[in-house]
Design a protein that fits this description.
about 240 residues, mainly alpha, about 0% strand, globular
């Protein structure tokens, strides 16, 4: 289906803000965009969100890739392999309504874990498990950031962004390959991605000057509030008669 002018503006703003978050803290585009995309057009999440996120993370990695924790990233990607396969299976098997509710649930769980300050130690086993969960949720809902953000939150800012971006770039490509094999990516996906790519590029360009002016804690809190609002909207739309 086509997008109205209002829907296009809403999706573009969501992508732009999400790209700023992705560049600033290493994740956020999926958590912010997936509920909104699902409200507008359920076919846009996860494939379009993953394609846009892959482009944004590639830009971050090109700028800060030298600080990547390669060993930790390797264990996380090893865990992502079985998670990706399971996530693609969910996309094929779950009806659109159930997939939308799963997206809402993942957003709410991620926000709750972040607010609680849960911080597992980044051992090999915990990084592998986080990668598995991230792969499953990232492929099924395009929201794979929270597990990795929790396990890597002790990393410094530039190292966190570089490591998260390396993981999500490779992980997103894995998820997209699995979704393509499952028949979940078509011409409609590519058209919508091309339409919204300028908004993602604008977010990347604006992230530098905006990040220096905005309070990181307040920005993250506002983003979490927007994500919860989107998730609540999804639940309200799909629960009930």
């Amino acid at each position: 289906m086509g997008l109205t002018g209002g829907e296009f503006v809403l999706l573009s703003l969501t992508v732009g803000i999400g790209a700023v978050l992705q560049v600033s803290v290493g994740f956020g585009l999926g958590m912010l965009a997936a509920p909104v995309f699902s409200l507008v057009d359920p076919t846009l999440a996860p494939p379009v969100v993953l394609l846009l996120a892959a482009g944004v993370t590639a830009a971050v990695l090109a700028r800060e890739g030298g600080g990547t924790d390669l060993r930790g990233c390797g264990w996380a990607l090893a865990g992502r392999v079985p998670g990706t396969a399971a996530g693609a299976l969910l996309v094929v098997l779950l009806p659109a309504r159930h997939l939308a509710l799963l997206i809402a649930g993942v957003v709410l769980a991620g926000v709750a874990a972040s607010a609680a300050g849960y911080a597992p130690r980044p051992r090999r086993s915990s990084v592998f498990l986080a990668g598995t969960v991230s792969g499953l949720m990232g492929t099924a809902t395009s929201i794979g950031g929270p597990p990795m953000a929790m396990v890597w939150q002790r990393l410094s800012g530039p190292r966190l962004r570089a490591t998260m971006s390396a993981f999500f770039l490779v992980g997103s490509l894995m998820s997209l390959a699995a979704l393509a094999a499952a028949g979940a990516i078509g011409a409609h996906t590519m058209q919508r991605t091309a339409l919204l790519a300028p908004a993602a590029a604008a977010g990347v360009l604006l992230a530098g000057p905006l990040t220096r002016r905005l309070n990181a804690r307040h920005t993250r809190t506002a983003a979490m509030a927007l994500a919860v609002a989107g998730a609540a909207g999804l639940v309200a739309r799909h629960v009930g008669p």
